[in-house]
UniProtKB/TrEMBL annotation:
This is 16S rRNA (Cytidine1402-2'-O)-methyltransferase. Residues 9-205 form the Tetrapyrrole methylase domain. The keyword S-adenosyl-L-methionine applies. SUPFAM superfamilies: Tetrapyrrole methylase. It comes from Streptoalloteichus hindustanus. GO terms for molecular function: methyltransferase activity. Pfam families: TP_methylase (PF00590). GO terms for biological process: methylation; rRNA processing.
Amino acid sequence: MSPVSGSGRLVLAAAPIGQPRDASPRLVEALGAADVVVTDDIAWLRGLASALDAPPAGRVVDTDEPVRPLAEAVRDGATVLVVTTDGIPGAAAVGLVAACAAEGAPVTCVPGPSAVTAALAVSGLPSDRFCFEDAPPTEPEERGRWFAALAGEQRTVVFCADPSTLGETLAEAAAVWGADRPAAVCRDLTGPGEDVRRGGLAELAEWAAGGVTGPVSVVVAGAEPSDLTGDDVDALVAEVERRVAGGARLKQAVAEVAETSVGTGKKALYDAVLAARRA
């Protein structure tokens, strides 16, 4: 849809992730100008606004508010501001951004702090390629599938975690991704309780066994190209054996399958085939 006329717009504003004084002057201005402020934690927002001496001029609503009326309000000329505890609004604003775009309404942002990039920066892990995965599912079976799906991810992985069950989460990550996989647990970044712990996943799981406090971001190094796990091994070994049965030499079959499977090392696959034959 082509842009609508009028002065309405949706504004995604970054909020401090620890220290209120990290807020930008533009956030203060936006709070005083918006017709509606959308947040995932109304009590937190009011506390932030008080610390900034910037009371919201408009009404404050929760992110559970239906997006259609908000998008229509933007279309009709209202300024709707989204401010969340994540730093820069992300998942909480996806539906609203899409609805405003469908209405042809302008969407802009007030840049600033981000828990994801802050954790990545202090982790000491590679930051040239990374992915953010929000939080693992709470249901055990779904959580297991979540970890398994990321087992071969070669980019650095950043995700949020429940501090009360952090030990369990890290132990499960260690079991699937490897006990020695380098990681960092970042707690209360920029806040008074800021703490960054680095080590292998199993070591960090043991440290966090009793639970921790504060907002938590976990940063985990990506898988090495030679890492093969679970169903990946079975499927790739079966494909190698199929090609061997068709007349290919073992090393040739291994090389061909490794080349077509992103992140698979030839040596790791060759060793897996030999191990399967011995089993």
